[in-house]
Amino acid sequence: MQPANPIVQLRDASLDDAPFIARVVLAGIDMLDMDAALPDEQRAIFEHLIKICRMDDTLYSYLNTRIAEVDGNSVGALVAYDGACYAKMREKTFGLVQQTSGMDLSHNAMETGPSEFYLDSMAVLSEYRGIGIGKLLMRDRVDFAFNNGFQKVTLLVDKEKPRLQQYYESEGFAFSEELFVFGSWYNKLVK
Questions:
Q1: Within the chain, which residues score under 50 in pLDDT?
Q2: Phi-psi region at 35: left, alpha or beta (left = phi > 0; alpha = psi -120 to 50)
Q3: For 149, left (φ over 0), alpha (ψ -120 to 50), or beta?
């Protein structure tokens, strides 16, 4: 059970955070709940994703991740990066995913591009939801982007999650376009 008013600290991820980041990525594409036990059939994908998260030049690299901690424990994370690097990192990341899982992700729309700072994957452990950790992570990366010369910040939200889209809109994001990624339609939002 969480403390009434936990003190949340944000930090850059390290190599040791790769397993947590892998869970965040899988949660971000609805393949795994952050708190769920890892099903046996996903073990190989998860282990390979950990290796991808430990690399410097992949979409889900620890270098692209901010961690939220409470009492020294990771409770949430946000993977975000320069859209100008997306195409090159995507090629490597999706190639590695296909080698291990057989998943062909080459038909995914291009999620981001130059002049954009892209908020890719975010998740928070269930017992820490509803107290602003996601908002803290998001605002941290939005501030980082605008303080570092990016013209816009973008993200995708599943069309089947209108409440989530309303939340992002309340944070200043607006609809840009529809994209088909990971087998579903998403709305791209921009700030």
A1: none
A2: alpha
A3: left
